[in-house]
């Protein structure tokens, strides 16, 4: 009786304790303000259980047991994350982290914490998702709130870490989020390096943005994590990108980043499409990099970016600083401080002594160019506002424009002579100051050269710049090597552009710019005409010609000058294209292309020379010639370029059934007898992807021609004379190149094609018609073993099939992409023609499937299966009833051809059922003339017999794996009738051949006849399969390889 009373008393005490704890927890649900008071109450309840006479460990376990029972509804109930529940979770975590006032209290708290963590770890592996969620949530709150001085057993921490690392891969995103939060406190521990490895592993694979954001916030600054954080600046989610910039600002010092990473961060952040992300990047630049690391000095900031290599990024950063008002020019700093007089004092307009120049660093030169350009634009804008305004408002704008102009004048050199001296000093200082020299050249566009004396000084300086030859150096053999690209003036495109801008500013009168350059060209061309010039002189003269032609508007503006346009073509450009030096040929070919753009009609000599250079020159020259031919074709149209040859040219595009014969470009007679598009296509068919230019590995003849054809397809409406067969054929070729294995290294080419394909099908219904027409020929050409026996390995065949399936899905996506709608287009659009719809594509695919008879090779079976999967994905609409009826007829024949393929037959039946639901009048039949009319509209040649009976075969039933037991009597009957069976197999009567024996006779007097009929059918099926197997074995390939089976299962899913 004593034990029973003790047990009842203990249960009553536990029930009373549970009620106390539940009351405290319920009161914490209302507000966070009650938590401090309730923490003391709950701690008092726990301390009262411990008495001097009782065991401390048992009392803590008793309290923990009751406490866990009280919390059980929080773990079991599938409730939302309400504010009340979140308050309880926070209170529980705070209580677990609560410390006592003495050593005994700390001991009780530590023991309770250990028991609580064990309880939570058990909940973290529960099957119930809410239990796992609450367990991980409370563990994360405890870990983040737990003071550092609290001692917890190492074994327990290891269990917690292992449990949370397991939850990082949980299927519920919120559980993964709290698991990452829990591990964030241990990620800096060198003993737990596996945590950091796990976070870096799951970050690029994580699909939920909140989890990715938590991982980024948890990563510590290190060489291993910096790249991962920077990669998140390209995340698709705006909040993740914002967090990445916040982490970079707070955790990653500027000095620990390489120059490449710094510029990457700024380039992505300043150009981000989200305003919040760009503001976070600005905060990074302003508060951390500019203020903390550079003490607000923009020049020091630019030194961290390598402005010579990343000029555009540095320019964008300075423009943002100026727009935000973070840097402002002052009177105590200006460019004039770099121009000193002989006595060491700053020069002014009255000083006549020779200036002493202090050379600028690249960062200073770029800084002053951006500052002066900003002031110049601001002064012009204020002046325009003053001109359009009236009264006091105009006076205010005029005063602001005057103040800005005064500040600009104080910054710029005092005189044009000082400016010329400053630029010359930097140019003469060698290549190390080339960048600064170019920045100072661009400053000249803000000076005033209207005075005659100033104009003369500046004109003389421009003449010196134009006469400045290419810089060169000698190799080991003593040969001269040009420094730079060898095409543009000064060996640098940016330098040539700066010189042209300054020359246009100085010679702003109409025709003066062309005249001054032609005078220099005529002077430099004299030794070239006399055949006394070396290749450097040729290149210098041609670079000036290229500069003139790039900035010229027409050949008419060049007439009547120092040298006529015809003389430039025949005396300079054509001889330069035939020069022995390859660099001279390349720049001459570029000039020929520019010259042809300025002509009203391309001349025969020019086009012929470009064709010869494209066919028979080395890759760098051939690439330049292909660019010139593409530009000429885009500007004048391919037809006009062909007319320039003055003879009848052949073209394979004019044939509707395009079957290209390979063109040998090395044949002197064959290449010049082809039209321009055929000639370019021969370059597209070349197998040499490695023919790169020396300046860029992203350029090749194939890529250049491919980009040109993409432009022609995109702007095809401007060239009505092109043959209709050109568009689908070239489109299919570009798609084949896009998915080819050889084009993987051509990143720029693939990027160009991806942008082209994204917009092509959405621009016009006609483009969708080309996509539909290109579908079947393209997929047939990509599928191995269709037009011949494939001699590749099974692995190669499997990869080829996968690429073909990818191309088919890609084409389907292009067909289903909605058209762009212009604001002026009516809401109720006209029904598009059949050949531009998905119904037309469905008929083309169905006809292609019907062309294969019942006996198909392994490659043909896989090909038909792939087409059937595309056919199922098409969205067929009841646009025309004749099309629906024709599709039913074709798919019925398709079903007959794949009757032995259970999966394919099921898919075809689904399409047929959908077509039956769309057929408004099933009783009406389609006439032969209507079917032929549809085929003629689609350009499909197929003889369909409408009168032929159409029956859909039944789906073959799966064979049973259970072998039925046969009685001895049945066996004896079959043995007795074996002779009769053999005779029936030899000559079966027509009446004894049932069409589909799908029932079994159960009576004994029918057993003999049923067995005979079953044997007849089995023997005939075996014979047909044997013939098919023999045919496939003769072709040297099995039905489906292991890789092909995996592939078909993958796409079926």
TrEMBL record:
Domain Nuclear condensin complex subunit 3 C-terminal residue range list: 540-876
Main location: nucleus
Compositional bias annotation for Low complexity: 951-964
GO biological-process terms attached to the record: cell division; mitotic chromosome condensation
A Pfam family reported for this protein in Swiss-Prot or TrEMBL: Cnd3
Taxonomic superkingdom: Eukaryota
Biased composition (Acidic residues): 976-985, 1026-1053
GO cellular component: condensed chromosome; condensin complex
UniProt xrefs under Gene3D superfamilies: Leucine-rich Repeat Variant
Coiled coil is among the record's keywords: no
Region (Disordered): 951-1011, 1025-1053
Keywords, sorted A to Z: Cell cycle, Cell division, Chromosome, DNA condensation, Mitosis
Subcellular location: Chromosome
Family affiliation: Belongs to the CND3 (condensin subunit 3) family.
Identification of the protein by name: Nuclear condensin complex subunit 3 C-terminal domain-containing protein
């Amino acid at each position: 009786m004593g034990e029973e009373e003790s047990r009842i008393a203990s249960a009553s005490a536990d029930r009373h304790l549970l009620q106390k704890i539940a009351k405290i927890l319920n009161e914490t649900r209302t507000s966070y303000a009650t938590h401090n008071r309730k923490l003391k109450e709950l701690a008092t309840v726990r301390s009262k259980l411990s008495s001097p006479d009782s065991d401390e460990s048992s009392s803590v376990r008793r309290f923990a047991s009751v406490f866990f029972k009280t919390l059980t509804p929080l773990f079991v109930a599938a409730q939302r994350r309400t504010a009340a529940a979140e308050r309880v979770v926070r209170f529980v975590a705070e209580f677990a982290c609560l410390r006592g006032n003495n050593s005994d209290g700390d001991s009780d708290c530590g023991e309770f914490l250990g028991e609580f963590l064990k309880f939570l770890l058990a909940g973290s592996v529960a099957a119930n998702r809410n239990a796992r969620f609450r367990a991980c949530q409370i563990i994360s709150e405890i870990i983040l709130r737990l003071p550092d001085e609290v001692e917890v057993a190492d074994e327990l921490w290891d269990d917690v870490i292992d449990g949370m690392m397991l939850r990082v891969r949980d299927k519920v995103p919120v559980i993964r989020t709290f698991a990452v939060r829990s591990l964030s406190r241990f990620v800096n521990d060198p003993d737990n390096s596996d945590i950091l490895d796990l976070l870096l592993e799951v970050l690029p694979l994580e699909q939920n943005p909140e989890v990715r954001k938590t991982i980024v916030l948890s990563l510590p600054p290190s060489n291993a994590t910096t790249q991962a954080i920077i990669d998140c600046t390209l995340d698709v989610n705006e909040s993740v990108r914002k967090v990445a910039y916040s982490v970079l600002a707070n955790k990653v010092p500027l000095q620990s980043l390489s120059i490449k990473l710094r510029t990457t961060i700024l380039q992505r952040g300043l150009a981000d499409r989200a305003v919040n992300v760009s503001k976070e990047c600005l905060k990074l630049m302003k508060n951390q990099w500019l203020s903390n690391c550079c003490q607000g000095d923009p020049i020091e900031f630019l030194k961290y970016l390598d402005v010579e290599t990343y000029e555009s990024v540095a320019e964008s950063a300075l423009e943002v600083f100026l727009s935000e008002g973070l840097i402002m020019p002052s009177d105590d700093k200006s460019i004039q401080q770099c121009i000193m007089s002989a006595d060491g004092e700053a020069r002014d307009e009255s000083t006549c002594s020779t200036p002493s120049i202090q050379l600028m660093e690249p960062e200073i030169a770029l800084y002053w160019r951006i500052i002066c350009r900003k002031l110049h634009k601001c002064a012009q804008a204020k002046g325009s506002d003053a001109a359009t305004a009236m009264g006091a408002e105009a006076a205010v704008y005029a005063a602001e424009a005057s103040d800005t102009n005064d500040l600009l004048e104080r910054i710029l050199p005092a005189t044009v002579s000082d400016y010329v001296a400053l630029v010359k000093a930097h140019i003469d200082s060698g290549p190390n100051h080339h960048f600064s020299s170019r920045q100072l050249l661009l400053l000249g566009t803000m000076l005033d050269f209207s005075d005659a004396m100033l104009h003369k000084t500046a004109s003389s300086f421009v003449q010196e710049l134009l006469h400045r030859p290419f810089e060169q150096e000698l190799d080991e053999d003593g040969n001269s090597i040009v420094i730079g690209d060898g095409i543009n003036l000064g060996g640098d495109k940016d330098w040539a552009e700066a010189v042209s801008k300054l020359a246009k500013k100085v010679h702003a009168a109409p025709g003066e710019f062309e005249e001054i350059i032609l005078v220099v060209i005529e002077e430099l061309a004299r030794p070239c005409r006399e055949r006394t010039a070396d290749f450097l002189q040729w290149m210098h003269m041609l670079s000036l010609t290229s500069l003139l032609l790039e900035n010229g508007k027409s050949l008419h503006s060049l007439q009547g000058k120092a040298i006529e346009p015809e003389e430039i073509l025949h005396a300079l450009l054509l001889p330069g294209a035939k020069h022995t030096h390859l660099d001279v040929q390349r720049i001459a070919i570029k000039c020929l292309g520019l010259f042809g753009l300025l002509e009203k009609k391309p001349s025969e000599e020019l086009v012929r020379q470009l064709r010869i250079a494209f066919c028979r020159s080395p890759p760098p020259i051939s690439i330049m010639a292909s660019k010139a031919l593409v530009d000429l074709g885009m500007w004048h149209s391919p037809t006009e370029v062909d007319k320039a040859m003055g003879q009848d040219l052949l073209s394979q595009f004019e044939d509707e059934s395009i079957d290209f014969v390979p063109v040998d470009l090395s044949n002197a007679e064959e290449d010049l007898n082809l039209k321009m598009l055929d000639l370019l296509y021969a370059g597209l068919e070349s197998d040499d992807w490695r023919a790169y230019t020396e300046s860029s590995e992203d350029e090749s003849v194939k890529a250049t021609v491919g980009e040109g054809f993409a432009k022609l397809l995109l702007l095809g409406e401007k060239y009505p004379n092109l043959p209709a067969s050109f568009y689908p054929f070239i489109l299919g070729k570009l798609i084949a190149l896009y998915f080819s294995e050889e084009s993987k290294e051509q990143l720029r080419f693939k990027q160009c094609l991806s942008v082209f394909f994204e917009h092509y099908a959405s621009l016009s219904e006609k483009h969708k018609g080309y996509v539909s027409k290109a579908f079947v020929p393209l997929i047939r050409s990509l599928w191995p073993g269709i037009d011949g026996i494939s001699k590749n390995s099974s692995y190669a065949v499997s990869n080829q099939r996968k690429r073909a399936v990818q191309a088919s899905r890609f084409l389907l996506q292009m067909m289903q992409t909605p058209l762009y709608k212009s604001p002026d287009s009516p809401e109720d659009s006209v029904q598009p023609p059949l050949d531009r719809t998905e119904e037309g594509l469905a008929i083309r695919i169905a006809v292609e499937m019907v062309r294969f008879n019942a006996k198909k090779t392994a490659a043909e079976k896989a090909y038909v299966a792939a087409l059937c999967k595309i056919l199922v994905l098409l969205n067929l609409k009841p646009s025309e009833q004749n099309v629906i009826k024709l599709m039913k007829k074709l798919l019925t024949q398709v079903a007959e051809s794949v009757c032995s393929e259970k999966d394919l037959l099921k898919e075809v039946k689904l399409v047929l059922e959908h077509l039956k639901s769309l057929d408004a009048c099933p009783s009406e039949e389609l006439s032969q003339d209507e079917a032929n009319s549809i085929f003629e509209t689609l350009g499909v040649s197929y003889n369909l017999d409408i009168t032929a009976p159409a029956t859909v075969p039944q789906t073959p039933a799966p064979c049973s794996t259970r072998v039925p037991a046969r009685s001895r009597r049945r066996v004896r009957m079959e043995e007795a009738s074996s002779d009769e069976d053999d005779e029936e197999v030899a000559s079966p009567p027509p009446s004894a051949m049932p069409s589909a024996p799908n029932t079994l006779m159960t009576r004994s007097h029918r057993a003999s006849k049923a067995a005979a009929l079953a044997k007849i059918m089995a023997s005939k099926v075996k014979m047909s399969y044997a013939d098919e197997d023999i045919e496939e074995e003769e072709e040297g390939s099995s039905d489906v390889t292991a890789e092909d089976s995996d592939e078909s299962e993958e796409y079926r899913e």
